[in-house]
Records
---
Amino acid sequence: MSFSLRWNIHKPSTVFALFGLALLLSLGSWQLRRAEEKRHVQAMFEAQQIAAPLDLSQLPEQPAQYARVHLRGRYDNARTFFLDNRVMHGRFGYEVLTVFIPAASEKVVLVNRGWIEGDPSRMQRPQIAAVEGEVEISGAVYRDTTRFYFVDNAHEANWPKLIQHLRMDDLQQQIGGPAYPFIVRLDEGRPGAYRIEWQVIAGEFGPERHIGYAVTWFSLAFALVVIWLISNTNIAHLLMRSSHGD
C-alpha cells in the first residue's frame, strides 16, 4: 500500500507559524552575534594584558579598550564620584572614581579605584581615605559601552557625587575642566586602590550562555516546524501506519 503525503493548509496556523519561526530564528541569530561580540571583547582584553603599560603621553587619541597605561601624578581628593548599585558577592556597595591630575598634562583622568561596601539603608556614604602626594599608578583604559541609560546622572552640588552610570560626556561636565575621554581601571595594590575584581563583561554572562540560549531558540523553531507539519499534513497518520506495518 502506497503512502502519499497530503497537504491541508490551515491559513491562520500557517501565518502564526511563519511569524513565530521568523521571531525564533531572529532571537537565535541575535544570541550568536552576542556570543561573538563577547568572544571579541575577551580576546581584546587578553591581548592587552600581555602588553607593557604605556605612559599617558604615548597613548593614541582614542586608545583601545583595556589598553594598559602608566600614570604619575596626584589624586584630587576633593573630587570623587560614587558609582551606585555595584553589588559584589551579594553585598551592596559603590565603585569609587576619583579625579587624577597627571604630571605634565593639562587634562585630568578619572580613575576607578575599585569597589567599597556601602550602607544598604543609604543613610550614610562611605568614607574615602585621601591619597597624599605624588604617586605612580597603572591600570587599563575603560569605556562604558552601555547603549541605553534609563536614569540620568543627578548633578549633585557637593562632592563626593553619586552617579548612576559612566557616560563620559556627562562626567566631564561635572568635573568642570578638560578630561581624557576614558576611565582608567586601577590595578590591584596600587596607591588608592580599594577592592579590585574587574570583570571583562561586568555584571553579564559569557559567550557560552549565549550559545546555550541560541540552541534553545533554534530548537523551539524546529519544534514549531514539526508542529505545523503535523497540523497541516497527514504525516502523523502516515507515521503511525508505517510503525504498524500497514
Note: The chain has four helices and seven strands.
---
Amino acid sequence: MKKIGVVGGGHVGATTAQRVAEKELCEEVVLIDILEGVPMGKALDQWQSAPVELYDTRIIGANDYGPAEGAEMFIVTAGKPRTPGMSRDDLVSANVGIVKSVSEQIKKVAPDAIVIVVSNPLDVMCYVAKEVTGFPKERVVGMAGILDTARFRAFLADAADCSVEDIQAMVLGGHGDSMVPLISYTTVSGIPITQLVGGEELEAIVKRTRGGGGEIVKLLGTGSAYYAPSAGAVQMADAIIKNKKRILPCSAWLEGEYGMSGLYVGVPCKLGENGVEKVIEVELSADEKAALEKSGAAVKEVMDIVKL
C-alpha cells in the first residue's frame, strides 16, 4: 500500500501513525490535523525515530487533505475526547460535525479508500462516515470490539495468572456500557475460562471491561485512552492491507445479521483486502442474544438523534 491517511493528530492519531510506520504497512503516512504546525512537528519527530527503529515508511504532517489524495486507507481518530463523568454518547453533538467534515474531505480526495473509524461514540460515528461518504458498507468499519476484547483479555490474564497470548475471547455489541463479553466463547488455550476463573470474579471482570474506557478517563483526568485504541486500529489495518482474512470483532453495518438491520454494532468480521468481507454469525445463548439486542437498541437510540 502506498499511502494511509490518519486524521487527528492527538494522542490516538499520532500513536496510530507511529505504529503504522513502524510496521511498514505503507510507503507514506499522512497525519492530518487542523492545528497549525502540530501534525508537521509530530510527523518530523516520528520520522527522526526511523533510523533508530529501522523503518522506511515516511511520515508527513498536513493541515489539509491535499497530501493524502489517493490514499487507499484512512484511519479517523478526530474528535473531542471524553472527560471524567462524560459518557461516549455525550460526545455525539460535538463529534458528529467533526466526523461529517472529515468524511466529506475523504470522499473528495480518496473515493476508493477503506475507512477505519476510531472516533467516539464509535458506532454512531461509523454511521456518520458511511452516510456522508456514500461508501459501501464493506469500506467503512469501526474499531471497538478489538479494544474491548483486549481489555477483557488483559483482565482475564491477570485473573487466571497466564499469558495474554493464550486468552481467546470476543466482546460484541455497541462500544459502550452495554457491550457483550461472550463468556461462552472465552477460553485459555482451548480450556473454558469458567474452569479457571470463578463466577463472581468473572462477573467483576465483565463489569470492569464495560467500564474500561471510563476507568482510564477518570485516572488521566484529561483525555482518554490511546495506546490500546491505536493498537486495535492498526491490527485492523494490518489484516486488511495484508489480506489476512482475520476474524476480528469490529463495528460493522448490519443488514439482517443477528436479527438487526440499519445500524453499526460490534460483531465478528472477516477482514481482507476489500475491508469487511463477511460478518460471521455465531450461535449465542438466550442471555447473550438478549444482551446483544439491548446493546443494538442503545446504539440505535443515539443514531436516531443524529441529523446529517
Note: Residues 3-142 form a domain with the Rossmann fold fold (CATH 3.40.50.720).
